[in-house]
Records
---
Amino acid sequence: MKEVRKNIKNQPAKKNWDLFTYQQLKAGLRPSLISKKFNIPKQTLDYRLSSLKQRNLIKKVGYGTYEIIA
């Protein structure tokens, strides 16, 4: 049970997923590393990346590579 609690502490609050994802990309982390480091499911991270792309905050420039627009 302690293991689960520890992983939950490292994750952002649900309402802050987009901001958290944006900040991590801006810091130079790739989505695969964000997923591993913060124990975030890849499907959740993909959804957040799609949300950021739709709002024109990021642009995909290659496999696992994003450019910060705003």
---
Amino acid sequence: NNIKSTSGYCIRTGEKIPFNLKMPMTEEAFKSWSRYKDETYPEKYCHCCGKEAKTSFEKPLCYNCWKKTAE
């Protein structure tokens, strides 16, 4: 894992938050997500770069950022 980022983005709101793949959302967004706990529910932003992307709790990174972690 080559990502050394300490700041990330909420995959639902795009707000800046600490980078944590196990918790890629703000507390508020997580509260609303946790009602259903659907790990594949579509979200709007990449947790790493913050750009609009098709993400989910299960896959919080856009393809480009995911590719960087796979290298």
---
Amino acid sequence: MVTLGLTVFCLSPMIEITPFFSVLPVIGPALLLKELLSSQGTAETLLYAIPVLVTSVIYSMLALWWAIELFSREDVLFRESERFEVGLWLRHLLREKEATPSFTEGVVCLVMIFFLQFGSYKFLGTVDTNSPLQALKLQMMYLVVTVACPALFMAVMLTKSVRQTLRLRWPSFKMLGLAILLPVALHPLSLELLASLDWFFPKLPSEVIEKLASMTDNQLPLWLVLLVFAVTPAVCEEVAFRGFIMSGFSQSHRKWLPIMLSALAFGLVHMIPQQVFNATLIGLVLGLIVYHSRSLVPAILFHLIYNCLPILRGRIDAKWIKRIEDTPAEWFFAVDGGAIRYEWPTLLIAAVVAVALLRWLLAQPVGEASAAAANAELAIDADVNVKTSVRA
């Protein structure tokens, strides 16, 4: 049983940018040991031993917990033998749908996303992307097909209420205001945090550098860049990770477990170590927003604004940036390599605002109106099931 759990969690792949940065419970330590033997234990190699071993232990513990949780359920221990037949099991899933996905279905959706992303790399490698416009269109299609489509397909096929599964409810105006202000406060903090850890992470691949350069290329239409790198990821990734996957993980009836698991999955899908680190932290914030608002709308808005800020920051003309020198603005901003950086007063203000907003968010109970709407949807689904069974 434990082997089954380990197998599922081992299916969360990640591109090996360096031999050290592996998150797989078995392959990570194996590659680390190989590098230690080949490099004779250099300081640079030993530096990556801690993240490799820690992530391997975390994945093994999660796999063990999931296996115990799954096989301690009565419907698994005492299920009928016909459910072991794939065809009958699929019919059971399609006929006896639940209102929201199960924990297992959330894991399956995550595995499908990983497999689709890795399967698409071979296809993308054969496509001629010399044209920047074609590359942007391909990037948008890639997100829609590999991230949004699996979640939407499984929500439609395996659940009764797509609206409840994806949390398609209108939130309170306070939550919308939080979704607007919080990314503005977190952006400079995350940017400077990654800059301070530049010595720790490996160098970015050339393909990623080219993609980042296209975000700030003034020759490309701004609306198209925002559509590809801000709007599409915000919608697709939130529908998948805070929509279907987090709904499945929420079947554990715990607060932090679905938030942490969906954030970890959201980080791993970015694959680049720098992006994995940053996306995991942002994923925790997004999970909290969705949990307390019971709506996907604030998360999409937060994600959209957070992605727009680096694009707009990179589009600022270097001539205008130089004008902040010898002005009070230089106390808050700096110029480094033609790009804006943030000084400590700006970071201090951003940290105070971010902490205040997060404390307010954590203090918010789950909205009664949203909970009532969810119960109403369950009642409607139950009524439909009763009428169907009576007719049968």
